[in-house]
Every structure is written in C-alpha cells, then in structure tokens.
What does this fold into?
Amino acid sequence: MLPPPLEHAKLQILNGTGAGKELPLTKPSVKLGKAGSEVVQINRRPDGHFIVCLDQPKGSAPSRVNGKDIGARSVKLDNHDIIEINRLKIESFHAS
It folds into this structure.
C-alpha cells in the first residue's frame, strides 16, 4: 500500500520554454519525455520517489540525476536533485 502523497513533493522546470513551471507529484507514477525520445518515470514508494529510465533511443544522451546516468537502475530522488532529460533540467523538491 502506498502512503499518501507527500504534500509538497513537486518538480520545477529550470530551463526552456517551461522554465519556472511546477509539476506536483500527487499521482503514484508520472512519466516525463516524448515517445521516440528519452522517457523516464517517477514512482512514489513507501520510502520516497524514485526515477527510472523507460526508453533511451540509441545515440541519445542518457537521463541523469545530479550528473550521474540513471541507466537501468531506479534512483531515489532527494530534495534539490537535478534531473536531466535530453536538454531539459528539472529540480525535485521533497519537503518532509
């Protein structure tokens, strides 16, 4: 059973045309990216939010958290982590 959503868990876009836009993490899972491009999913678990890469087309830059490739693993998101998907940079906010 999943815990209730963290009241203040959200993502904020840092660059591009959506810079400043906030995306609340209220659902059990959220997908980011476009088909045929980099696609990641953020899942809410009892011990926090985790990001996993679902699709990384050959030749595309890998998705990263704080400059480290996500690869095939699931990475726990902490407050102020920087997520990079293609050229997009997103900051995660997780208030306790």
